[in-house]
Amino acid sequence: REFKYEPGCLDRRPLRTRCGRQQISINRTSSAWVAARLAHFLARPEHVARFETLDLGLVPVGVFEQRCFLQSLRALPRLRLLIIPYHRWGSTNDRMRFVRSLPQGTCVRCVDPRGVVVERTEWTVDEDAAE
Fold this sequence. Notes:
The chain is of the alpha/beta class. The chain has 5 helices and 7 strands; from the N terminus they run βββααβαβαββα. The protein has helices spanning about 30-40, 45-50, 65-75, 90-100, 125-130; strands at about 1-5, 15, 20-25, 55, 80-85, 105-110, 115-125. The strands form 2 sheets. Strands 1-4-5-6-7 form a 5-stranded mixed β-sheet, with no helix packed on it. A hairpin with a 5-residue loop joins strand 6 (about 105-110) and strand 7. Helix 1 (about 30-40) packs parallel to helix 3 (about 65-75).
């Protein structure tokens, strides 16, 4: 029901040097690569109907601009709470544009790097605008 993203948690297996130390691949830290891995993970049939809470506070902000990732979020029918980073967005408008693109009724909490909630938003249908 809940998923918390940690950097590297979606890697198939850690890359290792010949000495056995873990190696960081630049390709695996790019926003497009992380977005594609997250989208693939969230789109799995056993996850689509399950997740209600996603803690994505440590996801690179560039991921939120990737179309494949946003489509995977929209496909989660039970998503009620999404935790995203407050800082590192280009502007407040970028963050609000992302929030408005989420399914109606999704509660969004913006957190700082320590995980402290800075802002809460709930995206709901305006009754007057719906008529």
